[in-house]
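>> Question from a student workshop board

For tomorrow's exercise we were told to take the sequence and the ligand below, predict the bound structure, and bring the output to class. My setup keeps failing. Could a helper post the expected result so I can at least see what it should look like? The ligand is DLZ.
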Amino acid sequence: MKKTLRLILGDQLNSNHTWFSEVDDSVVYVMMEVRTETDYVKHHIQKVVGIFAAMRAFASELKVNNHKLIYLHLNDENNLHSFEKNIHQLVSEFGFNHFEYQLADEYRVDTILKELSTSLSITSNAVDTEHFFTTREELGHFFATKKSFLMETFYRSMRKKHQILVEGDQPVTGQWNYDADNRKKLPKNHKPITPFVFNTDVSLIVEDINKALITTLGTIDSKNFIWPINRTQSLELLDFFAVECLSLFGTYQDAMAPNELSLYHSRISFSMNIKLISPREVIERVIEEWRLRPSEIEFHQLEGFVRQIIGWREYMRGIYWNKMPQYAALNFFEHKEKLPHWFWTGKTKMNCLKDTIQQSLNYAYAHHIQRLMITGNFALLAGIHPDEVDSWYLGIYIDAFEWVEITNTRGMSQFADGGIVGTKPYVSSAAYIDKMSHYCGSCFYKKNIKTGDKACPFNSLYWNFYDKNESKLASNPRIGMMYNVWRKMKSEDKTALLEQANYYLKNINEL
Ligand code: FAD
Ligand code: DLZ
Ligand code: SF4
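>> Workshop helper replied:
Here is what the output should look like for this input. Compare the format with yours to find the bug.
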């Protein structure tokens, strides 16, 4: 008689998966809280808690629905703390003769599971997670005959293939991309919507984590955990976004303001990345809301959001599977420095960085432009090694899983891939940060000053970056103009900027 063991990973909590469509007594599911996963990077406490809380809730649901399940808790005595060791133990203890798993999203775990399957003396197979719009290989096939990996080309093909906001093979409004209508600063007297948060008591999980002496970063309010931990909560958060935030999503997508957690962003990435909800249902829900209230929700708000999900999210995953494992070692600028200490405390006089880092430590969240144009921008200008930057992003954000973190961090933000994901490095001086935020007004540093006392560090570091990397960047058609400006600058001004940058880099921990 067939006795099957099926592994469910902590980011595979998809209750609509075919696996669960019927109860099969010859199948036993296994979920496990293991040290290999809690310790491969220093995670934010809210990330570990969020994943464990969601895993435990998912396990309870499976049991209520009469599926057989083994759940290995963090402090269980028989927990051997790795996927492979636990599976080997269970197979020999209970005599399973078949092993199944869903394809892992991370290259690291994919390799572990492939090796595990060959090392077992029983049959095994892997199935799809039934979550994404694309397969792992699809993007590679799509770009096989094209010169570059342009996201926009991929995005349009996704719209057509999945018939999203199109009529035949044309966009429903005659225009594919409305990015130009977005990107406004928050007006001074505008009070953004209050974020919709949960207040789940997760103190028992925090106790387990403390007892196991897992090293984490950040803080947690264990009586009021703000993140969704099950499908019902995820759908509630999605509803809040569709009803309350979508109508201003695009407009303020790139805006930043002190002490504002998420403005009009959805904060749906955690729910999606652990598969409590699917990208398809997220998109269907927002399109439904737009159809209900077309006069209140302009099309560009909707298009901007849909593009992030069927465009960027699927694109980043496709690049990951096309370029790993080499991608994880790319370092185009040969950067070598360490992150300043204040990345772990938020204790810096630079207001934009202080706010973004403190918020990340308090909530395990920062929105896209904070990640790209504040912390990422600074790390790139300061010449930080991409490994350092990757570990920070992979640890600190609740939604951070390597398949989507590394392509964004090493690729989009650090340009360490030399231009696979982006066409030019995302760097800026204080001018951009001030244009999009309300950080500069109350900063210790002065946004308009480039050298001398209280000069904003972004200003000199920006020119220093271009100067140092001229041989690598000057031929880039999107950057050439900056070099024209740099070359025309008076030589004493250039020297002063470079000296200022040098001073700041030498004293980076004191900024
Ligand atoms: P919203 O702004 O409401 O956007 C909706 C959804 O679109 C997101 O939930 C996300 O699923 C998707 N999305 C938007 N932008 C991207 C993008 N660039 N790549 C992939 N999906 C996108 N996203 C992660 O999910 N995990 C990460 O570890 C991660 N690391 C990042 C690191 C850096 C340096 C940068 C610049 C971006 C990173 N992103 C990551 C992308 C993006 O910042 C987050 O998806 C987004 O901030 C999540 O918040 P939200 O759900 O409120 O997003
Ligand atoms: C991120 C994470 C953590 C912290 N802990 C666990 C765990 O104990 N058990 C588990 O199954 N998954 C965990 N995860 C999520 C995994 O790291 C994720 O499944 C892999 O990244 C595979 O994509
Ligand atoms: Fe950031 Fe410079 Fe503005 Fe201060 S002045 S908030 S450091 S950009």
